[in-house]
Specification:
By secondary structure, the protein is α/β, with parallel strands linked by helices. 31% of the residues lie in helices and 20% in strands. It contains ten helices and 13 strands. The chain has an eight-stranded mixed β-sheet. A five-stranded antiparallel β-sheet has the order 9-8-12-11-10. Helix 4 crosses helix 5. The longest helix is centred in the middle third of the chain and has 19 residues.
Length: 337
């Protein structure tokens, strides 16, 4: 993400960065990677991003089930503790904002969620004396998008333009699915609040294991070693890779690349706010597509040139490791283990 921001700062308006971890049964908020977030803030100033630059995101611990999250957000001492801790942390910001990532919890009760968000706003107003701007991140099928009172509470609604339940046989964001999903969310969320997050990563299955999210350059690097080439699946509107790796395991990958993004942008309204999701994983050709002309129109290009990965960062490691990540400096490169 740091590399992506430095390379494309001129085309970015906001950056959403993981800042907090939620999900503990007793309502504790865990700040994430304080030093890294400080580096992001410094970088946002360096790049002169318009607006506030960084939008903090609270994500839910991976082990938290939806029923456990519902218990956490139910009225009571746990929710009060959560709201108080968030208000204390966010009150230090020039403009308190929070985006909650509910990608894995589309079935969360809308009424319960709405009341919990209202409580967060109330505690911020009474404890810190300042309004709280709220945003949610979720897939298009999340039931709470259909609650107009909840949507009214939000400043932004980030709808993920890909599925989390895809398989080696089904693309994460088939074009027909994408068009239907966008049509539905447009009817539920006001245009000024809606942000469509376009997937810019590869989803990989190795053998019988769980799917893994890879960067575009990393996926092509693995494929190149095996002599494989991506093939465009016209029906899905996405590229596929299938190859045997050095361990003789079958690798199946779907690539959300510049071609799929071009097709998705074609069905969005002019001026629709979009997010590159996640930053740093993308096919570098998407930035040419996203470059608007003087009239604000997105570029129409032929994707026939060679893909230049010379500016991409690849990381490969084996075994447990803890790395301290510091902002890049000219002439200085190291990894502290």
């Amino acid at each position: 993400a740091l590399t992506g921001m430095r390379a494309r700062g001129g085309q970015l308006v906001r950056v959403m960065a993981d800042a907090f971890l939620l999900g503990a049964a007793y309502g504790t908020v865990v700040p994430l990677w304080e030093n890294r977030n400080l580096a992001l803030d410094e970088l946002a100033e360096e790049l002169d991003l318009p607006g506030e630059g960084i939008l903090p995101v609270a994500r839910i611990t991976a082990s938290t089930r939806t029923d456990e999250l519902a218990a956490l957000l139910s009225p009571g001492p746990t929710l009060e503790r959560l709201a108080s801790e968030l208000a204390d942390l966010l009150s230090r910001e020039a403009r308190p904002e929070l985006c909650i990532n509910l990608e894995e919890h589309p079935r969360l009760d809308p009424i319960l969620l709405r009341r919990a968000l209202s409580r967060l706003k109330y505690v911020m107003a009474t404890q810190a004396g300042r309004p709280l701007g709220l945003c949610l991140i979720a897939t298009p099928d999340a039931g709470f998008w259909r609650d107009p009172e909840l949507v009214t509470l939000l400043e932004r609604a980030v709808v993920l333009g890909f599925r989390s339940d895809s398989s080696p046989l089904a693309a994460p964001a088939p074009q027909d699915w994408f068009e239907t999903a966008v049509t539905e969310v447009r009817a539920l969320i006001p245009a000024e609040k809606l942000v469509v997050a376009l997937g810019t990563f590869a989803r990989s299955w190795q053998g019988q294991g769980w799917p893994e999210r890879l960067g575009y350059a990393e996926a092509l690097s693995h494929a190149d070693r095996s002599g494989a080439m991506p093939v465009m699946d016209a029906g899905a509107g996405a590229s596929r890779l299938r190859f045997l790796d050095a361990e003789r395991q079958v690798n199946d990958l779907w690539l959300m690349d510049a071609a799929s993004m071009h097709n998705q942008l074609a069905v969005l309204d002019p001026g629709q706010a979009v997010a590159v999701w996640p930053l740093g994983y993308e096919d570098p050709a998407i930035w040419r597509i996203l470059q608007a002309d003087a009239q604000g129109r997105l570029a129409q290009i032929l994707l026939e040139e060679k893909v230049d990965l010379s500016q991409q960062v690849l990381t490969e490691a084996g075994g447990p490791a803890i790395a301290a990540i510091t902002p890049a400096r000219t002439g200085r490169r190291f990894v502290l283990l």
